[in-house]
Amino acid sequence: MFVTRGGYYAWKNRQKSPRQLDNEELLEKIIEVHQANREVYGYPRVYEVLQRQGELAGRNRIARLMRDNGIKARMAKKFRKHSHRHHLITDPHNLLLQREPPCRANEVWVGDVTYIRVGKDWNYLCTVMDLHTRQIIGWHFAKNVNAKLVREALLMAIQDNPLEPGLIFHTDRGVEFCNKDVYSLLGEYGIANSKSRAGHCWDNAAMESFYHSLKTEMVYFHRFKDLVEAVAHIMSYMRFYNHDRLHSGLNYQTPVAYAEMAA
Questions:
Q1: Can you give the pLDDT of all 263 residues of the chain as single tens digits?
Q2: Is the separation of the CB atoms in 217 and 74 below 8 Å?
């Protein structure tokens, strides 16, 4: 197609349409939201934030602008389930199979352990999540995976939250959760012990989902030199996850906001 010199300069000097100007203004807002949330938001969460700020742009328009400008969720792709456990148990039962999903906070807690490299060594993170609010209410990070790791995470949750009658603590069947010291702590506070079925990782899907987010949105972008540096980044991400990160399973509320609404 032939374009004359005059036609080219007429096109180049043409004033931008109102739609183009609106798109440029909207793009600035998208970039601001994206950067304010660690660049881990895709278009659904960006759309939700902008809606709450009074922006009327549609989801498809925001998705198109993000796609056309190369703005996407910053996420690593090498997440793998942890496989450090070498010993499994065959008792307690899964108490969650025959009950409805929790409808209030402090009804069901779930816990798990994952590994994070610090220097040349693996270190271990144990977290306790409230299954109703998806809030991380207890955690501990240490060089060894054992009952002490679990107890410290549980004690944080116990000290900071009211214990409802019938509270359940659900985990997988890893040996660190199946220790007399952990059982003693649960018994002391009247917390029921529940375990996933062998070979059914999705019995504890909420914790698996959290670890996927933690690793693909933060851990895999850092090489931690020492325990202090790793703990600082983990603390920062925990705060972001609880207070700022919109959760699709909570109707795009943060865990803290959802807990306050449910209180």
A1: 566 776 666 656 677 778 888 888 888 999 999 998 988 899 899 999 999 899 988 999 999 999 989 888 887 766 555 544 444 444 468 888 878 889 999 999 999 999 999 999 999 999 999 999 999 999 999 999 999 999 999 999 999 999 989 999 999 888 899 889 999 999 999 999 999 887 666 678 899 999 999 999 999 999 999 999 999 999 999 999 999 999 988 999 999 999 998 76
A2: yes
Q: Give the Cα separation of 15 and 62 in Å (integer).
A: 23
Residues 151 and 178: beta-carbon distance below 8 Å = no
Q: For the chain, first and last CA: distance in Å?
A: 66
List 247's β-bridge partners, or say none.
253
190 exposure class (CB count in 10 Å sphere: 0-12, 13-18, 19+):
exposed
Contact at 8 Å (CB) between 190 and 163? yes
Q: Is 142 exposed, middle or buried (0-12, 13-18, 19+ CB in 10 A)?
A: middle
Residues 6+ apart with CB under 8 A from 194: 92, 93, 94, 95, 96, 168, 169, 170, 171
CB atoms < 10 A from the CB of 145, how many? Answer: 22
Structural tokens at position 219: 């851990």
